[in-house]
Write a structure and sequence with these properties.
Length: 774
């Protein structure tokens, strides 16, 4: 009954108000239709529509851009796009893939933005140079004096808050590139307005030198995503002067000063176009000094302008670009305008338009794409491997002048002073006291003149090539083996007329018994080092290989050697960086990995730590650090030797003088301290032998202390017997299997000089006493 009353009530209500309800619904529908018709498109519609093509610049706008003018935009409170009225404004959506074509807007050269910071108050010129033959170093000193004179003339006694500072000078071979060429030096706290100007003087060589490493560092810095693209932009400016030889490279296109041009290019990128003065060239055979003087005068004027104006200011369009306007470099963002001009009128094809089906290709193979060639297309180039040390190179001339015989294109041999001494009966080196190697029976050679370090105490005067990877022509091990033997015998024969040479020792020297692969460079770097070692062993020539702990992969695959040395020149990362100046950025990680490999090989190879102590660098408070390394690798022996000063300007430039050469008493004190620390840690080592003349002491593992006596020497006949048996039937052997007892005169406390030889003193009171007894 209740439901009947409710239904009748609703019907009565509808009949009473149906007309107003119909009118209201109709009105709302009309209003909504009008609102949707005249309202602008919603965001959803805009987002789903096809984007318009980029607008090309009008002729008037292009003229303004070329003249460097800009239109000032009208200021408006709000910028609201006008609604598009009518269906004509809606683009038609095609059923096929969309295609977008247009032109890239040209960049407008704006005013150079000066670096934010304190106002410029002082200009600090820094001269960088690289030199193999000391010629560029001499020119750098000329520039140094010119800038020093300019600084004195510019000095104003009444105004000490602004001026040109005396120049600094650095050899690229003896600096850490990260200190100067990853980020610019920070001004001193007392003078925050100081700005630096780099003056770079470099020669160009057709061989690998430290310049290749330097240019490679700039390349890596520019392309390292972790480093700002213009990481040297805080510099006030830079300028480069290159030295070349027009007899070898008549034109720039053929290579004249090519490395200077490359350096200028990288510096333009890293500094953000801050070339202060044009790139200068000098021919070393004609006008090098006069050209440098002219360049120096222009540079001095620019330094004064920078000081007066507070910066380089604004240049013409293209000023500071890495390359000339008719060259292309796809890696450089500043050349986008040139690439745009070259590509005008070409359509940009959408990825969906590229047909990947069978109808889109004529063959079944992949489409050939060159991802490596920048700039103009060229025919595939046939890469020819360079020689490491060509006969026409300055490196070849420098090494041969030092007494080396260059074998092939990357190997060398030389006789040392101890060989000459042993031939005259005046004593052998420490290797005879420690290991039984007679110096006149030893050949000092290397299959790789290239090294991955630039050690401050290197005897080679910095003239050998450097590199982190092998990228040269590779000579066969047969060629090297025959070449080093011939070179060694030739040099021995040249000693036959030297007064004092003993006939029996000269005859013995014509049969090589030992080979010290420690001459120069990194022997383990040679790709066929194992084959070369096998050739030595086939003629019963023992092998003593020295490495710098920078090539763990090669060390891990190394075949058996008579004795394996690893140079341990520092106990921590920072000291190693300062002393060895390694080229690898991960030098410490490589170093640590080599120690791990040495630990694994300690029961297969006779492993030796070679510590070269340089006073003021790696001696003070480093005993614990060295003990840590010994505990990590557990070598069979530890040689501790004082550095030998080679007395060159190269060493002095690295901060090494006679003051850094430790006395033998200091070496003894260090050895005792290290031995005490090893004993405290429970490591089984002891002081086995010494050679005071070489300023060298040997620590040995107690594995070689048998029946109360040290056995540091090598039984060479036994070694080759075991080696041949291992090759024949695979029988392994250990270092203890071919050890021999150490001679009494070589033990700790006895000096280590062979009593069968005659000690000759060349200076001091001992020389006078010797003359008196004779």
């Amino acid at each position: 009954m209740a439901e009947l009353f409710l239904t009748e009530g609703l019907v009565t209500l509808w009949h009473s108000y149906r007309l107003p309800i119909l009118i209201a619904v109709t009105s709302v529908a009309i209003i909504l239709h009008a609102y949707r018709r005249f309202q602008p498109k919603s965001k959803a519609v805009t987002a789903s529509s096809i984007p318009p093509s980029p607008r090309s610049q009008s002729p008037e706008k292009l003229d303004q851009i070329r003249t460097g003018e800009r239109e000032k935009p009208a200021v408006a409170e709000k910028s609201v796009p006008k609604p598009a009225v009518g269906n004509d404004s809606v683009p038609k959506v095609s059923s096929g893939p969309k295609r977008v074509s247009g032109k890239k807007p040209l960049k407008v050269a704006g005013r150079r933005r000066e670096d934010q910071g304190p106002p410029l108050s002082f200009i600090q010129p820094i001269i960088f140079f690289a030199s193999l033959t000391a010629n560029t170093e001499r020119y750098a000193q000329i520039l140094l004096e010119d800038l020093r004179t300019a600084a004195k003339e510019r000095a104003d006694p009444e105004n000490r808050e602004r001026g040109l500072l005396p120049p600094q000078i650095h050899d690229l071979s003896y600096i850490d590139f990260d200190d100067y060429f990853t980020t610019a030096p920070k001004p001193p706290p007392t003078s925050p307005g100081t700005r630096y100007v780099y003056c770079l003087l470099i020669p160009t060589y057709n061989i690998d030198t430290v310049l290749n490493t330097f240019l490679g560092h700039l390349d890596e810095t520019h392309h390292d995503f972790r480093i700002d693209t213009s990481s040297l932009s805080t510099l006030a400016g830079y300028s480069v002067f290159g030295f070349g030889d027009k007899e070898g490279w008549p034109t720039e296109e053929e290579g004249f000063c090519s490395q200077a041009k490359e350096l200028d290019r990288w510096m333009a990128k890293l500094t953000g176009k801050k070339r202060a003065y044009p790139l200068g060239f000098g021919d070393v055979k004609s006008d090098a000094e006069s050209a440098l003087k002219e360049w120096s005068r222009g540079l001095q004027g620019i330094l004064i302008d920078i000081l007066d104006n507070g910066g380089l200011g604004e240049g013409v369009p293209g000023s500071g670009d890495p390359l000339e306007s008719d060259e292309e470099d796809l890696d450089d963002d500043e050349n986008d305008g040139k690439r745009t001009k070259r590509r005008n009128g070409q359509d940009v094809v959408d990825l969906e338009d590229i047909k990947m089906g069978s109808d889109g290709q004529t063959g079944s193979g992949p489409v050939p794409v060159d991802f490596t060639t920048a700039g103009k297309s060229a025919a595939p180039s046939q890469s020819t491997e360079k020689e490491m040390v060509p006969k026409t190179s300055p490196t070849y001339a420098a090494l041969t002048k030092q007494g080396y015989t260059i074998v092939g294109s990357h190997s060398g041999v030389k006789i040392c002073r101890w060989t000459k001494s042993a031939l005259r009966g005046r004593g052998s080196c420490y290797k005879f006291s420690f290991y039984g190697i007679r110096s006149h029976l030893c050949m000092e050679a290397t299959p790789s003149l290239s090294c991955s370090n630039k050690c401050i105490f290197c005897w080679r005067h910095g003239t050998n090539p450097v590199g982190t990877t092998w990228r040269w022509k590779v000579d066969s091990p047969e060629l090297i083996f025959q070449g080093v033997k011939e070179g060694h015998y030739k040099k021995i024969k040249m000693m036959r007329g030297v007064p004092g040479v003993r006939a029996e020792r000269f005859a013995e020297a014509m049969r090589i018994r030992h080979c010290a692969l420690s001459l120069v460079g990194e022997p383990i770097f040679y790709p066929h080092i194992n084959e070369f070692l096998d050739m030595l062993h086939s003629e019963h020539i023992s092998s003593f290989l020295v490495c710098n702990a920078q090539h763990p992969d090669q060390l891990e695959t190394l075949h058996r050697v008579t004795q394996l040395y690893v140079s341990i020149d520092a106990s921590n990362r920072e000291s190693l960086r300062k002393i060895d100046r390694p080229l690898h950025r991960d030098f410490w990680e490589r170093f640590q990995r080599c120690l791990d490999i040495l630990r694994e090989k300690r029961h297969v190879q006779r492993t030796v730590f070679r510590l070269t102590l340089v006073k003021g660098f790696n001696v003070d408070d480093e005993v614990i650090g060295y003990a840590n390394l010994v505990e990590k690798a557990l070598p069979c022996f530890i040689e501790i030797k004082g550095v030998t000063y080679c007395g060159t300007s190269t060493s002095a430039g690295a901060g090494l003088t006679m003051q850094n050469v430790p006395f033998y008493e200091e070496i003894q004190e260090f050895v005792v301290s290290l031995n005490t620390e090893l004993e405290r840690r429970g490591l089984d080592y002891g002081i086995a032998a010494e050679h005071a003349h070489s300023c060298c002491v040997l620590l040995a593992s107690t594995r070689f202390h048998v029946n109360g006596k040290w056995h540091s020497r090598i039984d060479y006949d036994r070694f080759f017997e075991l080696l041949e048996k291992e090759k024949a039937d695979g029988t392994p052997f250990r270092p203890e299997d071919y050890m021999r007892e150490t001679e009494e005169w070589a033990l700790w406390g006895n000096g280590g000089f062979d009593p069968n030889d005659q000690r000759v003193y060349k200076k001091g009171t001992k020389k006078a006493l010797q003359a008196a007894t004779e």
